[in-house]
Write a structure and sequence with these properties.
- By secondary structure, this protein is an alpha+beta fold.
- It is built from five helices and 14 strands.
- Strands 3-6-9-10-11-12 form a six-stranded mixed beta sheet, sandwiched between helices. It has a four-stranded mixed beta sheet with strand order 5-4-8-7, with no helix packed on it.
């Protein structure tokens, strides 16, 4: 009996993987399919505490929202997209829906990634992709190297060198995000604090 094989597009392969691996994060970055296992408890607790900080800072009253795991369309290659851990977005971000669960970059004011086993993606391709689409603020809680990196104000599709923050310090949220807040490095790295 003959078996017909159909070649899948990258997007179709991503959809199949997402269905086959519930809880995993499937993204296409710079034309490369990436799959990240489900996050651990410290990762998720850090996101919960991050949300609380933005609630106290009055994010909704300032006309913005924060969301977790919402797709960012990356119009650099035809099928590229990312699913940031945490984002501050314009309150009407749903009006910028592009396709599937991906939204246009212009509604994202801040993206936060907390590294897991895919730490190299957060520190490499995502830095490049987010800068190229004009994300004003990109914050990486780099658990592999025990520091937080703050990238701001991309110019000509690239971020200047990041500001680096160590344990015991606080990261000031840039004014361009729309609220005043300081983020604990310890809370970002491990959910404590």
């Amino acid at each position: 009996m003959a078996v017909l094989q159909q070649e899948l597009t990258l997007g179709e392969a991503a959809d199949q993987l997402a269905r086959a691996l519930p809880g995993h994060r499937v993204e296409i970055l710079q034309g490369r399919l990436t799959v990240t296992p489900p996050p651990d408890g410290s990762h998720q607790l850090a996101l919960t505490k991050l949300g609380r900080v933005f609630d106290r800072a009055g994010i909704v009253e300032a006309g913005y929202e924060y969301v977790q795991g919402v797709g960012l369309w990356l119009p650099l290659l035809p099928e590229d997209f990312a699913i940031p851990d945490f984002s501050v977005v314009d309150e009407d971000f749903r009006d910028a829906h592009v396709t599937k669960n991906y939204y246009a970059p212009h509604v994202f004011r801040l993206i936060v990634e907390i590294t897991s086993s895919n730490w190299a993606d957060d520190l490499g391709p995502k830095v490049e992709c987010y800068a190229q689409v004009g994300i004003p603020v990109y914050l990486v809680a780099d658990r592999k190297h025990d520091e937080v990196l703050l990238y701001t104000d991309p110019v000509d599709g690239a971020y200047p060198a990041p500001e680096r923050f160590k344990r015991g310090q606080f990261v000031p949220v840039p004014e361009s995000v729309g609220v005043f807040a300081e983020l604990s490095v310890d809370a970002l790295l491990d959910g404590d604090g």
